[in-house]
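Question: Send over one sample?
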Amino acid sequence: MLLGQRRFSTEDQEHFRHLSGDANPIHMDPQAARRSVFGEVVVHGVHTTLWALDCLAQSELWPGEVTALDVRFPNPVYLGDLVTLTVKSQDADGIRIRAEVGGKLVATIRFGRASRPAEELSAADGLDDLAAVDSAKPHDFVDFEGMSGGVPFAVPAEEFAKDFPCAAKAVGAFRLRDIAAASCLVGMHCPGLRSVFARLSLEWTGQGQGSCLSYRVTATHADFNLLRLSCQGSGLMGEIEAFSPPQAPRQPGMEIIFAAVSSGEFASQTALVVGGSRGLGEVTAKIIAAGGGSVVITYARGQEDAARVAQEIQAFGGKADIAHYDIFGSSAEQLAALEPSFTHVYYFATCHISRKTTQVFEMARLEEFQKFYVAGFYELCQGLIETGRKGVKLFYPSSVFVEDRAKGFTEYAAAKMAGEILCTDLDRFLNGLSVHVARLPRVMSDQTYTVSGEEIPGALDILLPVLRRM
């Protein structure tokens, strides 16, 4: 049975930040979110939970006495996704709800009776860190063992009654406030800045007395970057599981790249690096500059990142500038505003690559990749011709996934294969340009690092021999 559907907006994000106090950048800042394990802004998982509770409370399926909540978050909800709530099962113990996006499971939610008396749970009682925070706390994993504290409630319980009236009537607005505080606990305090909410398991207690959600870390598992916390609020207590992935990797600095690059080996290049503000584009710009070349680093959204890369290059005596370039805008108009004397163009424009899916193939996903890896590159080539830049060498990074792809990369590989075919024909039929393609392996970047800390080769070792062949 369908319970409800919803798309969460930027305004929804801001309002829930007000209710919960959870202002973690992955929910509020597109620039910070794109450097996270998610790659884009994600909806607060607890907001999805409270919305589901309100939908259920106003339906004929409300299971009567509810004294427990258990939620698992296997996948994120991205801003703008259409979330669908359906009833999975209902029995004497309660009701189970699935939250899905395009068939992909994003949350499983159980409302029902407590499986054991609440007093058997171990509540967190440490209040040595009871203070509201304006920014999410960064922690190293070794800091978490034995950590305890308290998260003050962000707003009075009555505000939850306005936003979730049916749920507030069914379980008490003060409990909704407690649940929202769990979002702030994970996103702002512990784990804090680098956090992934995995599970929330709660049982009702009390009658709304208290001013905070207290917590204590009860277990840490460094191999999985996982920690468990016990928590107690004004009307509930229970357990939380969250991941704290390692910090997104920085690409090698100029001092490392200077040591690997021969002096003057790229001195003949004046290069436009499209998407050079981070990842492979950042490393490419640094390599060319370290070898004596001049680079213009483009960005679509990451102006601060592009400026940081250019400043690092300039600090080591390299020549670098930045420019805005959006593949969805007019290529010729944007290129006309830039210096005309490019000898090389390196194309690293990309969207977020790895989104989990239950489908073997999604047409919308393929179309998104094709905009970047096929249409965007073609328009760039056309713009170069229209602005009189003949004789330019272009580099197109394809992927080994074209031949040997992991599960979930069908659309990505298909778009890269189409890009390779386009490059072959551009090289044959579009006079004045020389297009070079290389199939790159998966290399370390802020798009490829994982919660588990899987080791991935560095970009410098992979890119340097490829660029030398250019």
Summary: The radius of gyration is 25 Å. The chain has a mean pLDDT of 92. Residues 363-386 form the longest helix (24 residues). The chain has two domains: 2-243, 254-469.
